[in-house]
Write a structure and sequence with these properties.
Oligomer: single chain
Radius of gyration: 21 Å
Shape: globular
Number of strands: 0
Structural class: mainly alpha
Helix content: over 70%
Number of helices: 14
Order of helices and strands: HHHHHHHHHHHHHH
Number of domains: 1
């Protein structure tokens, strides 16, 4: 029952971040390619979409958000050790928000500006006790559950419908190779919509930040035992089964891309995220290297932005937005992740961190010399 040592704990965060990054790409990939109705998919794509709903969708932004909260505690602790101002973290968030806005000019699904916005709110909890963070985080989670439950009940009473909305305007712009129109459309339509979504999503994201911050503070003092990790893995897996069963039933005859399905997909994301996190922790504790995940995690921001760049360029140059099968997109995503793993390994042999991370750090600290990340 040995606790996780300090070095192991940081390795764990890198590995979990890299693992989550892989899932994030698979989640975002259908949006990169152009959303399609499940009813229009072939049998292979339908089965693949079921797999995504069971094990991919909503699970990984949950992990990433909790990791942001954990990273917040690490960053603030380092500022305190160096007796530096919290304004350094404010600059860090401001730069992240700016990166998110630029990212929105390429793709509507950016999450960075949402994280930055919620990060500013997280600053309100710098001096609160860990249990206070946990209670408020759980309260916001209960609010979010009630919101999704109301959507589910609405769909049950008024009739379910697909939540997929293929973007005909974007399809025309890509097919016509209209680069100026593409960026103008994102700047005038997609960017404002994304900022509006942030104003609706912030309670859920902030709650995950707070829970992640609590876990970092809690387990930094007293790391979880192996027994606790095993119990967490088994309990969260068992709790996931009812929602996973409902997802399978929906795909067998109801609206597979509708509100009811999305409710159970979201619900399973709460519990399976814990399953994944504890499984990774047990693997790290058992001595599994998982070097690929760790390399991807050390350059998570660079790799995340590269996902958008690669898929956007390929789809735009081919003019195939909204027509590429899901199985081909999945294969492309796996190839991209393999390439990023090799690139990350090479790059980190010569540099301490990824190129975007380095620019972010330089903007955060300016000309100050620091060993903080």
């Amino acid at each position: 029952m040995n606790p996780i040592a300090e070095k192991e704990r940081i390795i764990y965060l890198d590995v979990l971040r890299g693992f989550a990054l892989c899932g994030i790409l698979l989640v975002n990939m259908p949006s990169f390619l152009g959303e399609r109705f499940v009813s229009d998919m072939g049998q292979v794509d339908r089965l693949l979409r079921l797999f995504f709903d069971l094990f991919i969708q909503t699970k990984f932004y949950t992990l990433f958000s909790a990791l942001f909260g954990a990273g917040f505690i690490l960053f603030i602790d380092r500022l305190r050790q160096k007796k530096r101002s919290l304004w350094i973290f404010v600059r860090r968030l401001t730069i992240l928000f700016a990166i998110g806005l630029i990212h929105l000019l390429f793709w509507e699904g950016d999450i960075l500006q949402t994280y930055a916005f919620c990060g500013f709110l997280l600053l309100l909890f710098v001096k609160t006790r860990p249990l206070t963070k946990l209670f408020i985080g759980l309260a916001l989670q209960l609010y979010t559950v009630s919101l999704y439950l109301s959507i589910y009940l609405f769909a049950q009473s008024e009739g379910d419908r697909s939540i997929i909305e293929p973007d005909g305007r974007l399809t025309d712009l890509v097919a016509g190779r209209d680069l100026g129109g593409y960026f103008a459309y994102h700047a005038t339509v997609q960017l404002p919509d994304a900022l509006g979504n942030t104003l609706m999503l912030w309670p859920e994201i902030l709650s995950l930040f707070l829970i992640g911050a609590y876990l970092m503070e809690r387990f930094s003092v007293r790391p979880p035992t192996t027994r606790l990790l095993i119990v967490g893995f088994l309990v969260s897996l068992i709790l996931s089964l009812p929602a996973l069963t409902q997802i399978i039933r929906v795909h067998q005859g109801q609206v597979a891309d509708g509100l009811i399905n999305y409710f159970f997909v979201w619900l399973s994301g709460r519990t399976l995220a814990i399953t994944y996190a504890t499984a990774i922790a047990l693997g790290v504790r058992a001595g599994l290297r998982m070097e690929g995940f760790r390399l991807l995690g050390r350059m998570a921001l660079t790799n995340y932005l590269t996902h958008t760049l690669v898929f956007t360029v390929l789809v735009f140059l081919s003019g195939t937005y909204g027509t590429i099968p899901l199985w081909q997109g999945t294969l492309g995503a796996l190839i991209l992740l393999a390439c990023q793993t090799f690139f990350s390994r090479w790059y980190l042999r010569h540099h301490h961190q990824g190129p975007i991370e380095a620019l972010w750090r330089k903007g955060t600290y300016g000309k100050q010399k620091s060993t903080e990340l």
